[in-house]
Amino acid sequence: MESYLKNREALELLAISHEVTITQEIKTIILNTDIWVKLDEIVNILQPLATAILSTERDTSVLSDVYYTFENLKKGLSQVLDESVFLDAEDKNLLLGHVSSRKDFCMQSIHFAVYLLDPRHCGNGLSDEDISKATEYIQEYCVSSGLDVTNVLTNMAEFTTKTNFFQESKPIWSPAKKLQPRIWWQTFALNQSVGAIAIKILSVPPSSAASERNWSMFAHTHTKLRNRLKQSRVLKLISIRSNLNLLKKKDEKILYNDSEDEDSKDGEVEHVTTSNTDPLV
């Protein structure tokens, strides 16, 4: 749909051209302004949904992103629907209702628990019922793992309220926004009672997208024509390919930044040259 919007001018020129044979019905659709306005609105409505899906399919996504993603999706979609001129109140409520239903279907106790133990969020925004579900999950985990429930829950309360070891004034909180949540726990709070649980559930991916990409990479490497490759060599080839992709992305980013710097330098030189040749100087 976005490609249609980007090529609107070209399509309209095509519709009025005498060199191309197009049916009158298609011409009418292309030249209808309301169609383009509706198409633009559809793209705006779908954009928060696409962003939400992509945010949980990254290689760096963690399970705690699910709750945060649903909250952002609801806010973003509400804002877009408020600006809609074609949808009535019933349709808007229906769309928001579908999002809420999907959230209720997807969100389980572990999602609330992992969001509660994410140092970036510390359960911010969770309702009392959500916190209760998170606590029940952690309690069940303790029982099944043979951990002291009282110590773990006490430690969890200290974490969420940022007291005792987790005092807000400590420097351990400043890297929380930049580090992966699991890395944060492994680095700063590995020996805390709730640390083992946090590391475990924060290692769970929110979707199978990363695994499927990995399987696809294996499929392109260990093909029918190369089925005699040993597992050790396949792993090495996959590792090389993955790291090359990362380096490629890094190089593209550096190249983009360098080009911006060159543009800014060119602008500065041009400005200086102009000022020196100004007859009023």
TrEMBL record:
GO terms for molecular function: protein dimerization activity. Residues 169-244 form the HAT C-terminal dimerisation domain. It holds the Pfam family Dimer_Tnp_hAT. Residues 272-281 have a biased composition (Polar residues). This is HAT C-terminal dimerisation domain-containing protein. Residues 257-281 are annotated as: Disordered. InterPro entries: HATC_C_dom, RNaseH-like_sf.
